[in-house]
Write a structure and sequence with these properties.
Blueprint: E1 11-18, E2 24-32, E3 40-48, H1 52-61, E4 69-78, H2 79-88, E5 94-102
Parallel strand pairs: 3-4, 4-5
Antiparallel strand pairs: 1-2
Length: about 130
Amino acid sequence: MNIFDKSENGFITAYRLHHKDGTFSVNMEYASIPDIEGKVVILCDTMLASGSSMVLSYKELMTKGKPKHVHIVSIVASTEGLDYVRKHVSLTNVTCWVGVVDEELTAQSYIVPGLGDAGDLAFGKKH
C-alpha cells in the first residue's frame, strides 16, 4: 500500500476448522472486498499449503466482479497446494507467484517445516 498508495484493498479471513476425526475444513469468516471489475488484483497469503483457503478466497473475490488480471502470491507453497489451485481456479488471466515450493505436506496438510500457524492464527485463536 505504500507503493500503490491510490489502490483499494480488501480483506478475507479463512481458517481451518479441525474435526475430531483428524480432518479439517476451510471456513471463511469475513470478507470485505471492493468492486474489482476490470482491475488488477493481488490475492496473497503467507502460505499456500493445501490450497483450500486460496481457492475459497478466489471464489469469494470473483463475486465482486471480473478483474482484468489476478496475481496469486504466496511466500511458501506446496506442490499439492499449487496443483489444487490449478485444478479449481480458472487460470485465464491469473498468474501464480511463489517464493519457494515445498514438495512435502504432513498428513494434516501442513507445509514441512512450515512457518507454524502463521496464517491460521495470525488474527487470534479459532474455535
